[in-house]
Structure formats: C-alpha cells, structure tokens
Sequence to fold (358 residues):
Amino acid sequence: MTVIRRQTVDDKTNIGLYEGEERLAGLTVFDLPMRIGNCVVRCGGIGGVETAQQHRGNGYASQVLNDTLAHMREAGMAVSVLFGIPGFYPRWGYTPAMVEATLEIETAVGLQAPAALAVRDMLPQDAPAVARLYELENASRTGTIVRPPDRWPGFRFGVDWNGNVAAYVAEHDGRVVGYAAYNSEPWETQVAEICGGRAAMGALLRRLAERAAQRHREKMRFRVPPDHPFVAYAVGLGCCLTIEYPHAGAGMARIIDQQRLLDMLTPLLARRLEAAGSAWRGRLAFETQLGSGQVDLGAGECQAVGLTQERLTQLVLGYRSATDLWLDRQLACEPHLLPALEAMLPAGAPYMWHPDRI
Fold:
C-alpha cells in the first residue's frame, strides 16, 4: 500500500509517495516570496521532481503532484512556479509564464569596455550589500524573488542550477556598487546575473572579458531579462540578444488561490490605473475554471472577464497582454474594457534570475 508523506523544514516541504520505507516518487515545494510588480505574493516553487527509475510509468509522479497542489492551497500560497520539461506539466494547469533571454558579447568587444571602477572577487561579507543592490534594481520586476539583505546567504547557483558559482563586485570609494555572478568552471563563460550602474556594468564586463580571454573563449553569454539595463548598455558595444517564449516548458506558473491572489494585487491594480490616467472604475469578475475572482476598484458596474486559469496566470504576470488574448479569442470582455485591463495588467518580461531558480 502506498502513502503520501509531507515533511516541512523551514521554508520547504518535501512531499513523497512511499511504499513502506521505499520512496517511489517525490518533490520539494519552496515557500518563496515572489514579486508581481512591486507586490510580493507567496509562491510555491516546485523543484526536484523525480520518480525512481524502476517505478516510472506507474503514475506515481501524478499522485505526488496532485497532493502538492492540495498542500499549496492549504498553506495559503497564491501562485506556483516551476522550471519543467516540455509537455508534462500543462495537465496540472501550468503554463509558460517566464521569458528566457541570452545576451552574447564577443570577448574582444568586452575587452573594450571602460574599466573606471575597481573589481574584485565577492567575499561572504559582501552578501548584504549585494542583496541591497539586487532589491533596489528588482523592486518592481515581476517574477523575481525577494532577498532580505540581513538573511540572504549569497549565490547558491549559477546558470542552470550549476553549483560552481562565483561573483565579482565593483567598488566606488570602498562601497559595493555592482556585481556579477558567473559559472566558475574554467571552461565556462556564462554569467547568471549582473547589476549596477553603467560604470559598474562596464567594469564588470571588462573583468569578465579578461577572464574569458585568459581561457581562450571567444564569447560570453549573459542570462538577463530582455529589458534589463545591461542589454541597453551592450547595444552600444555590439551584441546578440536571443529571446525565447517556450511552448510548454521552462519557466511555467499557475494560480493556486485565485481570490487570494486578486486580493493581494488589488492595491497594485488601483495604483496602475491611476498612474495610467485611466478614468475607469468599477468591479471586475475574472471567470475561470477555478471560479469567479472579484476585484473591487471603486464605484461602478461589475464587468465580467472570461478566460482560463492558464491565460489569467499569463495576464497577471505580464507574459501576454489583454489585447493579445482578446484578439486570439482567449479572453472575453467588452472591448471598451481593454484599455483599463492593459493599464492594470501591462505586458512585460517576467523573469526569475538563475541563482533563485528551484
């Protein structure tokens, strides 16, 4: 007889299917504070999904995932994110919701970047300063994970969960003003994260290019969101930017508690409406297979917005726009409501930095 067991330690819960003491399949749910705009919501990050080789094909992972959805609802999580293989997770309501981008810069070009600031290896005691820079730069970037400066331990991973990660920091008058985390194997030139003003970006790029040149590597690859300031900086030097919107894999998300999520987002939606100068006020009823989720944005009539949970997830995270969904007949509403929806839920580049991926 098989049984599901859950074990919670700190901010993660291990969920496994057991027969006796043998673990047949399992995963880990991480309780993550994730941003949607400048609003922080509880996100269930799923990682380490596995089924023992001899037990694959028996539906054991399905049982674990079904229990995982129930656990996240019971725990009060609003959304869930995972980085998964193509084609497997849509049956549990997960849909592509995170943009992937790779910026390539030739090493010879990077060596021409101005190095106006000192750059050195990051030390453990630099973690609070690095976290503060990260929080400042990502304060409104959807998909990013909060890093409390007083508790953040430093970089755990580089690109693609590579545990061989190191970092440089750029300094001005003895103060850390920028950083870059990179995969540290001798043959690697992948950069998992970069942050700082233009002077810091130039100095860090120059140091990374020197490292690549020492290893006879012709190019460096930076994993950054496509709207990141470093992309604009690199355009002036010369670069190649590749943007990927996966079909049914990579960064995927789904809504766990629809009304809880909408309640948490209501102040953000109201601020966005006002900032856009929109005169629309009223109530919204998002109708999905999860039920009707209500948003109260002032006096006015109630407007129905019909779409699936998957499309609402993409809309809330800014992966797709209301107009795009409406034109594809994946969103039903009165046409005059579209400008207000675009103001409240603008399209963008939702992104989770590689070091935070689970």
About this structure: The longest helix spans residues 258-275.
